[in-house]
Amino acid sequence: MKNPRPTGLTYPYMKTRRAKEHLDALNAELVRYGAGEYCTVVKQDDVQNARHIVRLEMSPVPEAIPLLIGEFAYCLRSGLDQLAWQLALLNSPQPSRNTAFPVLGISSRKSRAQFDRSVESMGSVAVMVIEELQPYHRGAAFKDHPLWQLNHLCNLDKHVMMAVNSTSLGLGVVQPESVPPFVPRELHYGIEITIPLSLKDEVEFYPQPPEFIFGEPIDSTGQAFEIRESGLADIYNFVRDHVLPRFACFF
Question: Which pTM was predicted?
C-alpha cells in the first residue's frame, strides 16, 4: 500500500520549514564565529618612525557558513518550484517539464518567452498572481526584490563558493580626550591604525563584532552582489508570509 502523496501547499511549506532550519543553523554558526576568534589583533612597534601599529585581520571563515547559505537558498527556491508544479497539476494531469516558478528581474522578449514556458501548464489566474510577484515591477530597483535575491543566491551557489565578508569590522579605541581621533586604514582583509609610539601605553584597542555580508567572490565578473545576514531572514519571511499565502485559495 502506497502512502498518499501530499498535494497543494504541503510540499512548498515543507521546503520552507526546512529552509528555516538551515537559516537557524547558519545564524548559530555566525554567532559562534562572531563571538570567537573571528579576527586577530596584531601589535608591533615601528621604532625607526616612532609609531605603534595595530592591525585587525579577519580569521578564515568556517566552511559551514557559505554551505549553509546555499542550502538555505536552495530549499526556499525549491519550495517555489514545488508550488509551481502543484499549480500546474490543477490545470493539467501531465504538466510540462519546463514547469517552474519564474523570477524575472528584467522584462525582455527573451525573459518573457522563458516566463511563458515556465507557466504554460498553469491556469490563467495562477499565472496572473505569479506575474504580480515579479521583481521587474520595481523597475531599476529589481535587485532589491526578495525573489530576485533568492534566485541570484541559488545561481551563485551553483557555480562558486559564497564569499563571506564584513561591512562593519571595526577596531574600538579608548584614548585620552586630549588626543585627536585616529583614522583607520582599510586593508584587504582588515584595518590598521598607527599611533605615536609615545602613546602606546595610553591607548587601548578592542575589536568590534562585525556584521556579516554575503555575495560574489572578489574576482567574479559582472556587477557585484551583496546581501547582509539580516537580508536572508527578509527573503525567508517574504516567501513564507507574502508569496505562499497568495496561492492558498487555489487548493
Answer: 0.81
